Amino acid sequence: MTYTPLAFLKAFRRNQSGAVAVEFVLIAPLLFGLLFGIITVGYFIGVSHSVSQLATDTARASVAGLDMQERIELAEAYLAKASINYPLLIQDAISPQVSTNDVNPPSMTINITYAIASSVLGIANSLLGLNISDIKGSAYLAY
Question: Does 67 fall in a domain?
């Protein structure tokens, strides 16, 4: 029995074998991209919150000091163990700046910059071109 082109097309259209595999090949990149985006956004939110919390908790830790020098030492000691208290943060990527003001009222400002190049966000940044190089957090405390 010979097939005419029209009969071959009808038989090809009715044949369902392999249709699921073709559909998966077409949809999978979109699904994996969406999954990667969801994970990246969630991780960014977690790291951003951790950086903000690190700044505020450092300021709170300095309250126990009796004078400004002791407060600075307490703040730096808290910052030294940041990756223990905040598991999403990498210690080497944290750049803290502690500044004080001795005028009335005495105060302390904590500025934290977190470089994302060595994390999952650095990979997403290079793939998606987000132009995010660091995450910043700060806290101000008047004594």
Answer: yes
Beta strand pairing call for 94-101 and 134-142 = unpaired
Does some domain include residue 71? yes
Distance CA(11)–CA(63), nearest Å, equals: 80
What whole-number distance in Å separates Cα of residue 98 and Cα of residue 24? 53
- Give residue 36's domain range: 21-142
Q: How many CA atoms lie within 13 A of 99 on its CB side?
A: 9
What pLDDT, in 10s, does the model give residues 58-93? 999 999 888 889 999 999 999 999 989 999 999 999
Q: Is residue 9 part of a domain?
A: no
Q: For residues 74 and 49, what is the distance between their CA atoms, to the nearest angstrom? A: 22
